[in-house]
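Q: Structure tokens for this one, please.
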Amino acid sequence: MIIYLYGPDWYRRTAKFKELFSQYREKHPAMDVISVDLEDNPDDWKTARDFLNQPSMFVDAKIALVREGTAVDVKEWIAILKSHLETRKTFILISDSKKKPVKAFSSFLAKPAISQEFPVLEGKMREAFFHKEAKIRGLSFTPDSWRFFTGFSSEGESVGTGMAELEKLALAGLSQPISLRDVQSVIKWFSRDEVFYITRQLAGLPAQAGHEDWRRKIGVLERAFLQREAGAHVFNSLAYQVRGSDAVRLADYDVSVKSGGLEYEEALLGFVLNASISRYLT
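A: Here is the predicted structure, written as tokens:
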């Protein structure tokens, strides 16, 4: 089965990607998993090919998490994907930033494939999205604070910036409805760049292998905590930047946090150490 998610709104698309992966993993806890990003590493289509062609002997299902799956237009890769359109125990979950797939992949928009588009939300649709997400988090705003928040969140193709600030407001424990002064005290116009910088360093490839990598990243984490950046905000921002095996690894920490086993700060520390050690060993 192929599930094809596409469109420029990376936040909503990635959230759906994670949601579907969690659902399949819950249904098939022993399933085999592979994660590749064909934009960053185009040759990894061969790794995905080998994974998909290999028989599953000790598990009842397998899933391939493929970011930018249509970035490679090799005929063999296209043929492999199409051969799994109707497989029942092999799932291929593709997340693409394209507004529409090229002709070679257009079959993913029709049955038996499952597809969902994530276009840019604008105007009333964008405001309605934030209103729904605020309600889920138990947040209410005064009219002037809501105008300020929606104005701040109106730019860009993705709703990710606004969602990051909404999460910070939810964690701040403010009295309801949230006043304009409180919104302005939590939302810092430079904060999106700061957290983005922090998480890019945590998600990036190491400059050097081994201890130099984890020492550098521990320093980045320490900086985030000293600045009192909310652990949940940093963790969720990181989740939209990690790729490959790091994405699977962070998903495991996400489960631990939501089950009450770890705090966000502990999960971030564990992820940095685990990822750095894994890279050193490989």
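A few notes: The first strand starts at residue 2 and ends at 6. Residues 203 and 241 are 6 Å apart (CA to CA).
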